Amino acid sequence: xxxxxxxxxxxxxxxxxxxxxxxxxxxxxxxxxxxxxxxxxxxxxxxxxxxxxxxxxxxxxxxxxxxxxxxxxxxxxxxxxxxxxxxxxxxxxxxxxxxxxxxxxxxxxxxxxxxxxxxxxxxxxxxxxxxxxxxxxxxxxxxxxxxxxxxxxxxxxxxxxxxxxxxxxxxxxxxxxxxxxxxxxxxxxxxxxxxxxxxxxxxxxxxxxxxxxxxxxxxxxxxxxxxxxxxxxxxxxxxxxxxxxxxxxxxxxxxxxxxxxxxxxxxxxxxxxxxxxxxxxxxxxxxxxxxxxxxx
Length: 296
Known about the structure:
The chain is an all-beta fold. The chain has a domain at 63-219: TolB, C-terminal domain (Neuraminidase). It has no helices and 23 strands.
């Protein structure tokens, strides 16, 4: 959110980046996701199960991450999907050659102008979200495995300019490393610490910016999604979607939750029971996903 400029920004699965005024009365598409012809090597048209039809062109959307540099008035977003399209894309292969390379991270002005592609081929399969370290001019994002796109779990890092992309943490379970799928990232710039969620293991972790002192802060959560930090108050806030059942126990249901930055003091602040009876049902349960914070 750009509170000074009075805009709320979000990424949408199919159509790109959008923003609206704080009162919701003026909505704009700042970065549209453009259709892209299927490369001739795939002998289009191609049948996509997600569309249930043949198509000569695809949408490459599924932008997971979005963050703002409020000082320089720049928007960062991505990675998008590395395959030709998220619709049935497990039946295709990633094409790392330009201009077809996906998994791109972009920067633009807040109104979508002066858009710059910072890098491509930033993830191997399912996209993770984006976190900025404006003090040290770094960005972090997850490259998690998934059922459709199995690969080694990695937490990635690059300069804000898109240079010096590297695997910050390899989390594949080998050589004493934990097996974790890093999804959502938040950075405590002053302390030099990176926080991230792991959906499959229902946990939240923290690591120093030099890659040392990796530690589990919370476990047995209900599929943590998204994470924001209130460093001044010593808190982290996150959503729990309740897609997975932690450790074989019964899920407690979705929640907006918080804990101290060291993992203590876990609280479920908002649950389905916080709403009038009948608001949510077994078929349509309370399932928060994105989360944002305006500190006091």
